[in-house]
Amino acid sequence: MVFKACDEDHKGYLSREDFKIAVVMLFGYKPSKIEVDSVMSSVNPNTSGILLEGFLNIVRKKKEAQRYRNEVRHIFTAFDTYYRGFLTLEDFKKAFRQVAPKLPERTVLEVFREVDQDSDGHVSFRDFEYALNYGQKEA
């Protein structure tokens, strides 16, 4: 298990450096200082690090976020039929005709304008992801 491998001294917790290594091992990237600071600020000061239970909670949340982001990417790719890396109004109309054929075109245009944050006529993955996340928080 990653926790044991990173807790080389058998302290029973992961230090700041141990945590960074664990994230690299599990997720393939080095966490930012902000991410590590955020995690370490929630640690009980008496333990000096992240206990196994806390580590498992962090990993579970990161896995869920990763899975959600992959689903969003999958939906975006399904709409981006020309693999351009962005969606046009036509892409939106086509997608909405498939999933909500009775939706008025004016509504589709309003949704597109709302999602196209920088009004460049293209919805980037970032715009798309933001819109879906914003919708999640509103519900």
Explain the layout of strands and helices.
Blueprint: H1 2-6, E1 13-14, H2 16-27, H3 33-41, E2 50-51, H4 52-79, E3 86-87, H5 89-99, H6 105-115, E4 123-124, H7 125-138
Antiparallel strand pairs: 1-2, 3-4
Domain EF-hand: 1-29, 67-102, 103-138
Protein name: EF-hand calcium binding domain 11
Keywords: Calcium, Metal-binding, Repeat
- CATH structural architecture of the largest domain: Orthogonal Bundle
Span between N and C termini? 37 Å
> Rg from C-alpha positions?
21 Å
SSE order, one letter for each helix or strand: HEHHEHEHHEH
In CATH, the homologous superfamily of the largest domain goes by the name EF-hand
Based on secondary structure, the structural category is mainly alpha
The major β-sheet equals: 2 strands, antiparallel
CATH class categorisation of the largest domain: Mainly Alpha
Q: What percentage of amino acids are in beta strands? A: 5-15%
Count of folded domains? 2
Quote the CATH topology of the largest domain. Answer: Recoverin, domain 1
Shape: elongated
Number of helices: 7
Low-confidence stretches: none
**Biggest sheet strand line-up:** 1-2
Helical coverage, percent range:
55-70%
Protein name: EF-hand calcium binding domain 11
Organism: Macaca nemestrina
GO molecular function: calcium ion binding
InterPro entries: EF-hand-dom_pair (IPR011992), EF_Hand_1_Ca_BS (IPR018247), EF_hand_dom (IPR002048), Myosin_RLC (IPR050403)
